[in-house]
Amino acid sequence: MSTVTMELDEDLVTLVAQLTADEHKPVGEAAREMIVFELYRRGVLSSGKAAQLLGLPGYDFIERASRLKIPYFQLSEEDLRKELRQSELL
User: Fold this and answer.
1) Whole-angstrom Cα distance, residue 45 to residue 19?
2) 2 assigned to some structural domain
3) Domain residue limits at 70
4) 5 falls within a domain
5) The dihedral of CA 65, 69, 74, 75: what is its sign?
6) I need a labelling partner for 69 at 20 to 30 A (CA). Which of 27, 33, 37, 45 fits?
7) What is the rounded distance in angstroms from the CA atom of residue 81 to the CA atom of residue 33?
8) Which tens digit of pLDDT belongs to each residue from 62-90?
9) CA separation for the pair 20, 29 (Å, rounded)
10) Considering the domain boundaries, does residue 76 fall inside one?
11) How far is CA 41 from CA 12, 13, 29, 75, in A?
12) Mean pLDDT of the region 33-46
């Protein structure tokens, strides 16, 4: 694992701390989680890889992503139509 040091504006640190106050996490750990969830939301990471990076079982990752309003299934409208057509063939 690599270590990255960055300077953050005090307002940003305060916001991250407020968002994660109920979890009692250090700001650096909370920021790391936010980065992983954002990369997953953008489709850069699979749910399995994101869960691994956060040290979470897959189900726990999916549950937390859901609480953050990040959908587990990220299908385009066309992909959804294809899936529905395929399911009708079963």
Assistant:
1) 23
2) no
3) 10-88
4) no
5) positive
6) 27
7) 33
8) 999 999 999 887 777 887 788 888 888 77
9) 10
10) yes
11) 21, 22, 18, 12
12) 93
